[in-house]
Design goal:
Nuclear Transport Factor 2, Chain: A; 2 domains; 5-stranded mixed sheet; 14 helices; 15 strands; about 25% strand
């Protein structure tokens, strides 16, 4: 046998072996998929699957006459039950005659949910308290009760206007396992009642001291947490302390941190950021729900879970003195219905108070004219001041005239860009210093909390934050105290 023939045979054997291995891997993947879908005792489900599907359901009773539901069975029932209720309470599904894989076809005909010719009503459940009432011998038929399920509804009136309501309801349902899926076949609903109210706001007596808004120089806005650098945080905290600032306002976006399930690496970095500030004696104002993905009811559960995880991670840090629920929500009025934005903020405020009853809350409005919104839900009235046609004092008076009571004021953003554009003869840095100094003088004379925008100039103002218009984007790069070369202005 020649050398060439030997090499040819070896290549054939290697190729055949590789093909067989690839085929075995594909078969294993397919088999694993079907096992995870249809086996009630599957051992191939990742733990994160269970954690995600169990988020909104608490089982008070999960056994019947000696039979104990497995973890997998409870999660399959949870998913089907929540999906069925979501379908029944979604107006589009009801009115368009859509079908659900978890609702028996004739259930909608026998259960006219919230139908009214003069209104359109949608709803989402935020929590469930389940008890197993019955399970058949073949384990294909079950009956459940759900006591005190929390429901938020959105009513859109055809004559105009939108209203939101929070109610508590009891359900009893029957579900049948058909073709590997649990389907709701019947439901009985109690009369709705008002849920227990959350703790109301309390007095805020912390001294924030001079503050500054913060993004690192190299990775601002949406890049902050994605490219977090612990050494940069350490050096920046020391710089902020040297400059005399006592508190930092920083931002926690929704999607970039993991959405409904914030990632472990983000939570680790978040705790490093907060603990580093605490080591330097710096107070913090975390600003939540930056860059939200909308305000519709179907997102509420994800937002609630996100908030709960953040509160759990940071609840033990005493240097967090104020929680900012949302940055500039009045700008969102341009893209979403005002009623939807305000309803979400109310919801977020109540959720945060449930998680951290003693926390102080605020909402940072973009314009002084909107600072009175939802004042009953917050402890501090916050707004931004960038309007060149409105003096500092006029802004203060406008806010004070629209707010009831004596809640403290917080100008959580102000500043001036040193960018001069085509007016190269102007000294933009000198104008910036003069503006900030005069602003701070008024704030301190009026005993108003404040946070300057911002620590650094930036090389780039991203279009996914500021759009494509250069006359808007370019000035955003030059609000910092420190320029892009690292030199203090």
């Amino acid at each position: 046998m020649t050398k060439g023939h030997l090499l040819y045979r070896m290549l054939r054997y290697v190729t055949l072996t590789a093909a067989i291995l690839l085929l075995l891997i594909i078969c294993a993947r397919v088999l694993g998929h079907f096992e995870s879908q249809y086996s009630s005792d599957s051992q191939h489900i990742d733990a994160s699957y269970f954690e995600k599907s169990m988020d909104h359901c608490t089982w008070e009773v999960d056994s019947y006459q000696g039979f104990q539901l497995s973890r997998y069975q409870k999660n399959e029932i949870n998913k089907a039950y929540v999906s069925a209720l979501d379908f029944l309470y979604t107006r589009k599904a009801r009115t368009l005659g859509l079908e659900s894989e978890h609702v028996q076809d004739d259930l909608l005909e026998r259960c006219p949910f919230l139908e009214n010719e003069s209104v359109d009503i949608d709803g989402v459940h935020l929590s469930h308290n389940l008890s197993l009432l019955f399970i058949s011998d073949d384990k294909n038929l079950i009956s459940l009760s759900d006591k005190g399920a929390l429901l938020k509804t959105r009513t859109s009136y055809k004559a105009g206007g939108i209203s939101f309501h929070d109610v508590s309801r009891d359900y009893e349902v029957v579900m049948r396992l058909t073709d590997g899926r649990w389907k709701m076949t019947n439901i009985r609903i109690s009369k709705e009642r008002s849920p227990i109210k959350s703790k109301s706001s309390t007095a805020f007596d912390s001294d924030l001291g001079p503050g500054i808004n913060y993004y690192p120089a190299e990775n601002p806005w949406r890049l902050f947490w994605a490219e977090y650098d612990s050494s940069t945080t350490v050096s920046d905290m020391r710089l902020i302390k040297e400059l005399g600032y006592k508190h930092i306002r920083f931002f926690i976006p929704f999607e970039e941190t993991g959405g409904a399930s914030p990632t472990d690496i983000f939570l680790e970095n978040l705790q490093h950021f907060v603990s580093t500030a605490r080591a330097e004696g710096i107070h913090l104002v975390p600003t939540l729900f930056d860059f939200p993905v909308g305000f519709s009811l179907d997102k509420y559960r994800d937002y609630a879970q996100h908030l709960h995880v953040i509160c759990t991670a940071l609840g033990g840090f005493d240097n967090i003195v104020l929680w900012d629920l949302k940055n500039e929500p009045d700008i969102d009025f341009n893209y979403h219905k005002k009623e939807d934005v305000l309803a979400f903020l109310q919801f977020a405020a109540l959720q945060l108070r449930d998680c951290l009853p003693d926390a102080a809350l605020t909402i940072s409005w973009a314009h002084p004219a909107e600072a009175h919104q939802l004042q009953e839900y917050v402890d501090v009235i916050s707004y931004h001041h960038y309007d060149p046609n409105l003096s500092v004092q006029e802004g203060i008076e406008l806010v004070k005239s629209s707010v009831k009571g004596e809640k403290p004021l917080y100008v959580s953003e102000f500043g001036k860009s040193s960018f001069t554009g085509l007016a190269f003869w102007r000294d933009g840095i000198a104008q910036q210093k003069q503006h900030n100094t005069s602003f701070i003088t008024v704030m301190e004379a009026e005993n108003i909390h404040y946070a300057l925008w911002c620590l650094y100039d930036y090389e780039v103002a991203p279009t996914n934050v500021f759009g494509i218009k250069p006359w808007i984007r370019f000035p955003q790069k030059y609000f910092g105290l420190v320029d892009t070369s690292g030199t203090l202005k």
